[in-house]
Amino acid sequence: MSNVTPISFVGAASAFPTRIVENDFFGTPGAKQSAMFRGAKRRHHVEPGQTAVDLITQACASLEARLGRSVTDGLDIILTNVSIPDMPFTGCGAEVARELGVHPQWVFDLHNYGCISFIPMAALAQSLMTTTGARRALVCNVQTAGGRIFSDPKIRQLPQAAIPGDGCGVALLEAGDSRPIEHIVVRNFPAYASDMQIASGEDASWWEPRGDQFSINFSRAKVARVVGRGNRMVPEVVQATCDQAGIGPSGIHTLITNQPNPVFLRNWRDALQVPTERHIDTFAEHGNLFGAAMPVCLARAEEEGRLRPETNVVLGGFSHAGDYAAAAVIRWTEAA
Amino acid sequence: MNLEDHVRTRSAMPVGTAPELNQIPGLRRIEQFSRDDMAALCMDETRAVYPHDTVYGRFCTIEEYIDCPPDQVFEYLADPYSLHEWTWSSRNFQPTETPGLLVGSDELADNTRLFCKTVTNAAARTVDYHCAWDQGAELWMIYLMRVIDARLVFGKPGSVITWSNCHHPNYDDNPHPQSAPADRDIWVGDLWPMFYAGHVVEMQNLKKILEYRHTHSLPVRPWVG
Question: Rounded to the nearest 10 degrees, how much is the dihedral formed by the CA atoms of A202, A207, A211, A214?
């Protein structure tokens, strides 16, 4: 591992669509809100015409303001992950580069890894730094499924429609060991690869013309299985990372996970023996931000001054129905 | 009408509609507690981890699969002298004047007599050891074991054993202190928090002994000859 270029976390910032959606937007009028998908007070939805690129550029402006430095100087790598992309085929990384006025050496628009995408994206950035001499990477995670799918008049009647919330987190990473991201563990569970499916009332593939919007299938049987997997695999992968890093339970000073629902968050804290106040939780305001949750939580923790020098920020989570799990440690310092 | 007749004829009777069912507080039945309510409750109650005391505080139940036919496992357990082999510390059993009641020693502590009566049901393959330290008049420390045919529950030959103990108040307070050796500084109930770990050790002993004898075609019994 000594030949790997160390990678450090410089900073993160977030941006959200202006449209805030309250709980009464969902469900069937007159019916009680499903307890199964409770916990969010509100969430944001992207509106028609609003793009992931818009949110990324807003978040970058916010990051520059907070860091007091350019995020575009010497930017070699742009990585994006957008849940429902602005455009199929092209991705949006090149548009981000255009909006920021940069010509990065590498642009990758990744569409897998879902809720844990921030961690493998950091690993990819590190690989590119190691193998190509790149120095700075902008990692952009955007969740757009709320406004693009779950605001549909029929879909929003489904109980699970209240869970997703839209938003964007960006993070600037750079070569060096000033605030290193270490012990990255990413696991793939191929057996669960097909367990998250597009659902619609029509017998059509998602790209085929149809009368109604599609959604994501959450049958009770699948929810039960995913609950079991999430309860097991996230503590396991975080534990594996902490073991590598020589961190005991009391050494998880800040825990940052994906934000699927309050039950998972509680269970992960319990399993890892992390008190509530050390686990960053944005679910009530933002719902499930999918892949954006980790950088948004990092930004939240920084903004609230919750990260202290010489502490360990431990990241962990799982994606989709359990096809991937990942964890990493950031050795926090005053300034990267 | 006896129970058997009732079960045979119940399809013609309105079962599940007794009026008090609507008055018993806290029942959760599909008539009032929807699928959605149930799913939410189950999600909330399904944890990644559980405190030891939540799981093993009032009851201590452990289970194991053993590659040995269920009738042989039952017969082995039904012979209380098998305790000499698979338990960690129950030894020296011999009959008392009371038929079926044995007295031996629990080597866990010095000078500690262990009384044991074995109650079995061959049809159900249950073996219950009714035990007590120090005296045989009140056998309150009860080990409830059941042997299940693994072909039924796992679809493979062998046995599943369940083993339960309940946290009797006597574990917390010795009801017969006058029977205890004067210099003994430990009470069996002091160890309740470690019952899970201790019983797992003994269950593993049981599994290893039975599987060894079964796979080597040796008699599955605790005596020689």
Answer: 60
What CATH superfamily classification does B55-215 receive?
START domain (3.30.530.20)
Residue A270: which of B54, B49, B206 has the closest Cα?
A: B49
Domain membership flag for residue A1: no
**B36 in contact with chain A, both atoms CB, cutoff 8 A:** yes
Average pLDDT of every residue of chain B: 94
The answer to whether residue B30 neighbours chain A at the CB level (below 8 Å) is no
A299: nearest Cα among A102, A105, A167, A126:
A167
> What CA–CA distance (Å, rounded) separates A12 from A302?
8
Q: What is the pLDDT of residues A275-334, one digit of tens each?
A: 999 999 999 999 999 999 999 999 999 999 999 999 999 999 999 999 999 999 999 998
Closest to A230 (Cα-Cα) out of B20, B103, B46: B46
The tokens 């120090």 sit on which residue? Answer: B134
The tens digit of pLDDT for each residue in A160-218 reads 899 999 999 999 999 999 999 999 999 999 999 988 888 887 788 888 888 888 888 76
**Chain A residue closest in CA terms to B40:** A36
Q: Phi, psi (5° rounding) for residue A256? A: -125, 120
Quote the number of domains for chain A: 2
pLDDT of residue B10: 66
User: What is d(CA B220, CA B203) in angstroms, rounded to the nearest whole number?
Assistant: 16
- Determine the residue of chain A that is closest to B42 in CA distance: A224
Chains A, B: CB contacts within 8 A come to 40
Would you say the pTM of this structure is higher than 0.95?
no
Select from A36, A233, A265 the residue whose CB has the most chain B CBs within 10 Å, as the one to mutate to test that interface.
A36
- Using DSSP's 3-state secondary structure scheme, residue B107 falls into coil
